[in-house]
Specification:
The complex is a heterodimer of chains A (352) and B (365). Chain A has 352 residues and is α/β, with parallel strands linked by helices. A six-stranded parallel beta sheet of chain A has the order 5-4-3-6-7-8. In chain A, strands 9-12-13 form a three-stranded antiparallel beta sheet. Chain A has eleven helices and 16 strands. The longest helix of chain A has 25 residues. Chain B contains 13 helices and 14 strands. The longest helix of chain B is centred in the C-terminal third of the chain and has 25 residues. In chain B, 45% of the residues lie in helices and 18% in strands. Chain B is an alpha/beta fold and 365 residues long. In chain B, the strands form four sheets. In chain B, strands 3-2-1-4-5-6 form a six-stranded parallel beta sheet. Classes of the chains: A alpha/beta (352), B alpha/beta (365). The interface between A and B is large, with 50 and 50 residues. Chain A: This is Malate dehydrogenase.
Amino acid sequence: KYVSPGTGLQYCCCSTSICFKVIASQQFTSTYSTGHIGYALVPMIARGAMLGPDQPVIINMLDIEPAAEALKGVKMELTDAAFPLLRGVVATTNVIEACKNVDIAVMLGGFPRKEGTERKDVISKNVLIYKAQASALEQHAAPNCKVLVVANPANTNALILKEFAPSIPEENITCLTRLDHNRALGQISEMLGVQVNDVKNVIIWGNHSSSQFPDVNHATVDTGNGLKHVRELVANDHWLSTEFITTMQQRGAAIIKARKQSSALSAASSACDHIRDWVIGTPKGTWVSMGVYSDGSYGIQPGLIYSFPLTCEKGEWSIVQGLKIDEFSRAKMDATAKELIEEKSLAYSCLN
Amino acid sequence: MAKEPVRVLVTGAAGQIGYALVPMIARGVMLGPDQPVILHMLDIPPAAEALNGVKMELVDAAFPLLKGVVATTDVVEACTGVNIAVMVGGFPRKEGMERKDVMTKNVSIYKSQASALEKHAAANCKVVVVANPANTNALILKEYAPSIPEKNITCLTRLDHNRALGQISERLNVQVCDVKNVIIWGNHSSTQYPDVTHATVKTPAGEKPAPELVADDAWLKGEFISTVQQRGAAIIKARKLSSALSAASSACDHIRDWVLGTPEGTWVSMGVYSDGSYNVPAGLIYSFPVTCCNGQWTIVQGIGSANNWILIAMWANFFACYEQSLTSRPFHVPGLSIDEFSRKKLDLTAEELSEEKALAYSCLS
């Protein structure tokens, strides 16, 4: 056991593992392989970016059989880097071994969308994957395991996982919209010529898809002379309701166009931010965006995995309540909810 | 009061190692969690769009410590004002290429980059060369940037050092953070000599010499050495790509320990400009055991086989650091003997470096 000198909290090294799933299927070319996110993510975890600089970790890496050799190579590199916080690495193609005793699960693996694939086909392949993994997690993960689904369609994959792992508390199953949240912070900071860490409280509502609604109505900038509203400082409502939103929606595609590969570095970093703020807590006065199981807040149909503004404390998230929603926002929030409801029925129809 | 940002240059930034390295730098792994940074990323024109994609991702990640990103194909713009330079860019060895060809291509690259760095980098810029042949590229860079202090030009052998720690930790089934003071001597190539003679392992009963715990001289002099020497190839075989994650992480360790100092009682391996220590020819970039203090490295002197000499060596280094901080003069303790097996290994890798140096110079004539 390791006792943190600062807080006196005990961290039990042995039981602190991270189950992190990488599907780097050889069939679907390394171009869109989620193996890239995994490769970017594991050194971040091993350095403490996810759980803090004093928290030892054990990383469980799962992949499919065709990627077993490459996965072994990643394990070798993790050994070679001599990370002080890394207390063990499990590299396996066995889902049970991967899920055993994990406290945190980052689900990167899924069936990527290829050119010409219909949305229905992507969903049908992914629901089967997430149904199977739900089962393994539920049976073998540590109680109170926290789950983050990254693989697209993230919200619906998370919903399927929740449905088929009923003994995992529903509040423990989330999906990543922190990447979109961070992208919004980045866009605002570039527009205003300010440092990104002076911008906060953007909101990503809804689905991690092109129907997402990046909302800056409540966002602020620390100007050195106090907090100012982003909308006031930008002073360009038209930009905020058009170009800003489309830039955000198409950012993933813009990265692919430039790099010839999808975002890995920023996705991995945002996954670390998502977990870190969830586990360690959000700074005072700051909220973040996470896809969580909706409870009817803001008139959103319960029973969807929907991205909301949240604060986190003591390992639990709470939806920021009482924010004023204008007409424009209302329409956007409802549109993305509608898409999620459609995805949900599509997913269920695939399972029958 | 927030610190002033430090400018860090990464060449070859659109490549694999660069892509692993830049988020580490942006997170504070290289210079500490309170040190803001501005990243300068350089690559060649064919990679300009990919480089821009990396810049976009760095913006998208909203790193609190990252105060700016310069992504450019212009070496002057890249080098301007940089305090740290990590030279990852180089001409990779392709199948069928002769060693001479790799050397020729790389010496021209490093000659021109030397020029740009010398003219445009900040004073006291610290340089680590990663691209292979790392030692010789660093030597060329030194030769063509004469106004950069020679002790500021280094090459990466920390990856090999960390690999050696990893191998010992696996062999003994201990945590890697409990193993220290391996040494990588010489060239970052297959002639490197990973030396465990003075390495120690933290046990519940205190620090113990690693060779004693391993209790297998044949393994230490045979398989262990070849595993570390050939690890790069093993990674390529498994991943179909060369090491990026571990190389990037080790580059961060190299710079961090150099700038922030090595922990007490611990040394690290760095390829540095040889001063004749341990009878290694002067004027090569050769990997030695070093301690770091006040932003300067000092070769660990007086390494012998008895523990009390190591204590003396540690004190000598402490004084060297103290003395250096007062007078900026190096303070040498005369070296003690290295055993016969090690001597041969040290000389072999020095010989290869001398040959590479001659080859490099012939390419430039």
